[in-house]
Design brief:
The chain is an alpha+beta fold. It has helices at 2-54, 60-114, 117-128, 135-148, 153-165, 169-183, 187-200, 207-219, 224-236, 240-251, 259-277; strands at residues 294-300, 313-319, 329-334, 340-344, 362-369, 379-386, 394-398, 400-401. Among the domains are: 2-115; 294-401. The strands form two sheets. Strands 3-2-5-6-8 form a five-stranded antiparallel beta sheet, with no helix packed on it. It has a three-stranded mixed beta sheet with strand order 4-1-7, with no helix packed on it. The chain starts with a helix and ends with a strand.
Length: 403
């Protein structure tokens, strides 16, 4: 901040000089002009007297007396003019001195009131150290960001995620609530808010949390955080069949070999065992896909990896280019999972009764959404003229930005 204050002081000094210099020049000019006028009048008077003396109207003694009188009047006029100007000059000098002192103080007060000194300091800190090393440092920096930019919904969301990592769901819920107000009803924000409230409420699903989860699922039926939390809540209340259904839906968008999928599968098996122990019949296990399928490998062009956040969502869907814009089938992945081989089938249908016909040409799209909203995206990859059931594994590469 030191360089800012030096620059401000320099600008104030320049402003003062720009005000004082014309006034000083004007005062000097006025003084010179007044003196020059008096001297000119004196010389004109002397010339008249000398002309009268040459004409015989004045004697030498009279000429000398008249010149002395003219000299005396010149000195009196000059002194009187200086005397009249002196008080004004002193008053103006004091006005300028007071202004020179008041101006920097006024500038400082206005800057403290309306300026962004904290924001500038934070910006420079983030430039000097883009990455923080500890979770506490991340929380501290993000808190300062939302203090400087209280309308930054993304910053509030990041703060909520940081609080969740720090096992502080109460503060996380407040942060996610602020993010929701500023970002609107986005599925990921709703799900994270519900999760924070659930843990802050002692693992109890209250009405407000349930409404947030329902809205998240309504906007995105494959929202992983919401599905996982609904499965946990159902398990905790003894609704093991419900937890199995939620977790099986969640498994559809995950790599079966990933640690997360294996943890979910373990939860499903525990829920099944609880139902067996209670003499209940567990729901059937998810059956393998039937009918034509589309095998593909989803990846990201290497030059785009640095531009995309690792926790961004990737929506892979197939649609009929000659039909409605809504996808027929879709899966949700995470950017960190890519490259990944997946299979799309009728089991991934967005609506009941949707089937895949090998005769229908489909359009395959992979869309990256940092916000987790399927309707928003920053980058995509696309394949046209794809048919369900065709041999081989298709390569779907996310390789361009969405304009």
């Amino acid at each position: 901040m030191t360089d800012l204050w030096f620059a401000a002081a320099g600008l104030v000094l320049v402003a003062i000089v720009m005000v004082l210099w014309p006034l000083w020049r004007r005062r000097q000019s006025e003084r010179v002009d007044r003196t020059a006028l008096n001297v000119a009048l004196y010389e004109e008077r002397v010339a008249e007297l000398e002309a009268q003396q040459r004409a015989g109207d004045l004697s030498e003694a009279q000429l000398a007396a008249a010149k002395g009188e003219a000299s005396r009047l010149l000195l009196e006029d000059t002194a009187a003019a200086d005397a009249r100007q002196a008080p004004l000059t002193r008053q103006l000098t004091w006005v300028l001195i007071i202004g020179a002192v008041a101006l920097p103080l006024a500038v400082l007060g206005l800057y403290r009131q309306w300026g962004a000194a904290d924001g500038l300091a934070l910006y420079r800190e983030m430039q000097a150290t883009p990455q923080v090393e500890t979770l506490e440092a991340l929380i501290d920096r993000t808190q300062r960001v939302v203090e400087v930019q209280p309308e930054n919904g993304e910053a509030w969301y990041m703060l909520g995620r940081a609080y969740m990592s720090a096992q502080n769901p109460e503060k996380a819920a407040d942060a996610f609530g602020n993010a929701l107000v500023r970002l609107g009803e986005q599925p990921e924000v709703l799900a994270q808010l519900a999760q924070a409230r659930y843990f802050a409420n002692g693992n109890q699903l209250d009405a407000e949390t349930a409404r947030a989860l329902d809205k998240a699922i309504e906007l995105d039926p494959q929202q992983p955080t919401a599905l996982g939390l609904l499965g946990i809540a159902a398990f905790e209340t003894g609704d093991f069949a419900g937890s199995i259904r939620y977790w099986q839906t969640l498994m559809q968008g995950m790599d079966p070999e990933s640690p997360g999928a294996q943890a979910i599968q373990s939860g499903i098996e525990r829920a099944r065992q609880r139902m067996v122990d209670a003499g209940q019949t567990p729901p059937p296990a998810a059956e393998p896909a039937t009918g034509p399928t589309i095998n593909l490998r989803v990846s990201v062009a290497p030059e785009l990896l640095a531009e995309l956040p690792a926790d961004a969502s990737v929506f892979v869907f197939a649609r009929d280019p000659n039909g409605p814009p809504m996808p027929l089938i879709a899966k949700r992945l995470s950017l960190s999972q890519l490259p990944l081989e997946i299979t799309l089938s009728a089991d991934d249908a967005m609506l009941p009764g949707v089937t895949l016909d090998s005769a229908t040409a489909l359009q395959l799209v992979a869309r990256v959404s940092p916000t987790g909203d399927a309707r928003e995206g920053t980058h995509l990859g696309q394949l046209d003229e794809v048919h369900a059931g065709q041999d081989g594994t298709l390569e779907l590469v996310i390789d361009r930005a969405i304009n």
